């Protein structure tokens, strides 16, 4: 039998010690929010063997706002990103629904991938890559709202033994 | 006023009061408790949780959750927890004559979306692909399920109903979204 266990409200349970805080935050958010743009916040947690767990946040919390009074949602959200490595490749997956492929601009260096979205409100995010890659090897596709970029890893520069003549 | 260039703490910390870097164990423990599962259930696939907050004029603010919902399978003396189903991010809009349900289900082929509606409920399910999405959307007013029109484009599903009273149960065909049938187009970018 497969079923969804009845669970308590996530906020109540997870944010129990901070519930007042959260309500205050929601109120603050509502005050500054545009009436039609929903505010979205989420996180992803990944735990791969032998690595530290990794938490990535996404949503349209304005990144530059330092004080909580200034928390209002921007129109474009930070995408949900997942990065995984194989022996030879580094894959970056980003969920960016609702845009056209033509509005996506990608730039890569050996250590970073910049995703830019053109349009009414321009947006960009810089993603740090977990390993050095060859940016010229990058291949990208955008399909059904998912951007996938694949890089070849740079081969590790090993010390070379030098003979003395 | 001089702008502080220091990046704010992450929102996670602000909202839940846990520093996800320093208090890793506590984070997993509290997350597991809130989800009713064990910390071992967090595996190699990303665990996703989020919420949206909407306020429309004259209405109460609305919070919708999305992300991975633990599913439990009970055998005689064991319980298995599956985390492969995801609740999509949903928005429901009303006009005088119609009700629109917008769901973000990126990464899915249109053919793999199953929609079923009654006058007050829309069930969204995907049958193949990763992640699996599943959601029951309660509609704010009664609709005619026969009137439903659905499109899927760039990861966004939109279902439009006419407002009306009806009790029959109907399945909905997805009409072609522009890119839903397109081939994966591969672009090369040169740094």
UniProtKB/TrEMBL annotation, chain A:
Keyword list, A-Z: Stress response
Pfam families with a match to the protein in the record: HSP20
CDD domains, A to Z: ACD_sHsps_p23-like
Top-level lineage group: Archaea
All residue ranges annotated as the SHSP domain in the record: 120-164
InterPro entries from the UniProt entry: A-crystallin/Hsp20_dom, HSP20-like_chaperone
Name of the protein: Putative heat shock protein
Provenance organism: Methanosarcina vacuolata Z-761
């Amino acid at each position: 039998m497969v079923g969804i266990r009845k669970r308590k409200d996530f906020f109540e349970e997870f944010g129990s010690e901070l519930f007042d805080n959260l309500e205050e935050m929601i109120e603050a958010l509502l005050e500054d929010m545009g009436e039609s743009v929903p505010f979205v916040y989420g996180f992803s947690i990944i735990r791969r063997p032998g690595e530290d767990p990794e938490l990535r946040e996404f949503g349209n919390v304005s990144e530059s706002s330092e004080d909580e009074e200034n928390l209002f949602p921007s129109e474009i959200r930070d995408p949900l990103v997942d990065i995984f490595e194989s022996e030879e490749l580094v894959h970056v997956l980003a969920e960016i629904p609702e845009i056209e492929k033509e509005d996506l601009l990608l730039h890569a260096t050996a250590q970073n991938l910049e995703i830019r979205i053109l349009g009414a409100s321009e947006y960009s995010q810089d993603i740090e890559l977990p390993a050095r890659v060859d940016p010229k090897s990058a291949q990208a596709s955008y399909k059904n709202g998912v951007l996938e970029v694949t890089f070849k890893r740079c081969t590790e520069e090993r010390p070379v033994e030098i003979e003395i003549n | 006023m001089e702008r502080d260039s220091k990046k704010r703490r992450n929102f996670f910390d602000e909202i839940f009061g846990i520093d996800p870097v320093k208090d890793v164990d506590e984070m997993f423990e509290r997350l597991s408790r809130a989800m009713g599962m064990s910390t071992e259930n967090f595996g190699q696939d990303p665990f996703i949780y989020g919420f949206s907050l909407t306020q429309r004029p004259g209405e109460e603010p609305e919070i919708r959750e999305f992300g991975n919902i633990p599913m439990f399978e009970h055998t005689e003396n064991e319980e298995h927890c599956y985390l492969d189903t995801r609740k999509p991010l949903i928005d429901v809009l009303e006009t005088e004559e119609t009700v629109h349900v917008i769901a973000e289900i990126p990464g899915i082929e249109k053919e793999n979306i199953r929609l079923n509606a009654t006058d007050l409920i829309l069930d969204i399910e995907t049958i193949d692909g990763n992640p699996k999405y599943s959601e029951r959307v309660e509609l704010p007013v009664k609709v005619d399920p026969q009137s439903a029109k659905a499109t899927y484009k760039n990861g966004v599903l939109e279902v439009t109903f006419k407002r009306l009273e009806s009790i029959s149960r109907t399945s909905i065909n997805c009409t072609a979204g522009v890119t839903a049938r397109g081939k994966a187009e591969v672009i090369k970018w040169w740094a």
